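Category: protein sequence paired with discrete backbone structure
Discipline: computational structural biology
Format: plain text, a pair of labelled lines
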Amino acid sequence: MSIESIQALSRQEMAQVDALIRARLSSDVLLINQISEHIIAGGGKRLRPALVLLSAGCFNYQGRAHHELAAVVEFIHTATLLHDDVVDESELRRGRKTANA
């Protein structure tokens, strides 16, 4: 099974998680919105939140809390990457300018 086929299983719910992330990161401060969008647009495989969503599906979870949890997992992961970029004074991550840059 390819990573693309695994991602396809949670694509619709992942869009809901992305919308939740955007809503939670919304700010009156333009720079915060720009950094937030830069981070979200960076994409990546998003395996961590996908695992949360897929696990919820495996157990037939019917609520909406799994979207919140998936967003929290992605926030924590993104925060560690951002922290790493700042501490290392990194200019690039996977060929893209970092939020730090």
Summary: The CA atoms of residues 12 and 18 lie 10 Å apart. Helices lie at 3-25, 30-41, 47-58, 65-88. The beta strands are 92-93, 96-97. Residues 65-88 form the longest helix (24 residues).
